[in-house]
Design brief:
heterodimer, A: about 140 residues, mainly beta, 3-stranded antiparallel sheet, 1 helix, B: alpha+beta, 2 domains, 3 helices, about 25% helix
């Protein structure tokens, strides 16, 4: 029997762009903001620029400390619970904000976000298929 | 020791912490404030488990966010604003500058409840290598 998957949302992106860029909204209490973030299956966490966390009213260093390794070294980020909306799904996640200002990018990673969803990528067509992780296969 | 965190809010004494009823349910703000004054301790540099982190994470369907106009604007104008933060409302440039806080402030003052603010970086022209 051939395995099949079903999804609830199709998001189209430009396959000619660097990476897969997704529109994201972050919210904390009464404050919200929109950003673009790269989909990154290789990232353990959802990581955002420090300045976005500060705009949400967070004291960045009061969060959960994580030292995050990359192919080129490591950096420090702090986790804070926020509401994250992307691709038609809203979740409560612990988002990590880089300690250093002017961090180069925002990424959507596995813990809290990707693990809660079911994703299918047809990069040739620039199509991302999205559903809840526990929705009917 | 008597420490009051802002007016009419949390009071720390030698006996403990007093949290007024008006703050009940404001879990995020409470946790942030209690961390700042050391009520929530850390062990080996790691903050203890966050009580505000949801045990089960409910997923809600919402309207997908459309930033296509903003991202198209960035593509067309990237070279003009490298190194700056830009606030956009559709194809309209609301504010720009090197200080993110000022750009966000200008966007809020322009009436944007959930502004799109992006730092324009030259490295975006390079292929994205992930982590």
């Amino acid at each position: 029997m051939q395995p099949t998957l079903s999804f609830e949302i199709i998001h189209e992106y430009d396959p000619g762009e660097a990476g897969i860029t997704l529109p994201v909204e972050l919210r904390l209490a009464e404050k919200s903001l929109k950003i673009s973030a790269k989909l990154d299956c290789g990232s353990s966490f959802c990581i955002f620029k420090r300045e976005h966390g500060e705009e949400l009213g967070l004291i960045i260093e009061s969060g959960t400390l994580e030292r995050i390794s990359t192919a080129m070294g490591s950096f420090v980020a702090y986790g804070h619970p926020v509401t994250l909306s992307a691709l038609g799904f809203e979740l409560e996640v612990v988002a990590y904000f880089a300690a250093m200002p002017n961090f180069p990018r925002n990424v959507l990673g596995r813990h809290g976000w990707m693990q809660q969803l079911k994703l299918g990528i047809v990069d040739y067509d620039g199509r991302l298929y999205v559903g809840r992780h526990d929705s009917e296969m | 020791m008597l420490e009051t965190i802002a007016d009419n809010q949390i009071t720390i004494t030698e006996d403990g912490a007093f949290i007024p009823r008006s703050l009940f349910g404001h879990d995020v703000e409470l946790t942030e404030t209690l961390r700042q004054v050391g009520v929530l301790s850390t062990m080996n540099g790691q903050t203890i488990a966050d009580p505000t982190e949801p045990k089960s994470k409910p997923i809600k369907r919402v309207e997908p966010i459309d930033l296509s106009l903003e991202l198209n604007w960035l593509k067309a104008h990237r070279s003009e604003y490298i190194g700056q933060w830009v606030a956009l409302d559709g194809e309209r440039l609301i504010a720009h500058g090197v200080d993110a806080r000022k750009v966000y402030q200008a966007a809020r003052e322009a009436g944007l409840l959930s502004p799109f603010v992006e730092q324009v970086l030259p490295t975006d022209d390079l292929p994205f290598g992930g982590w």
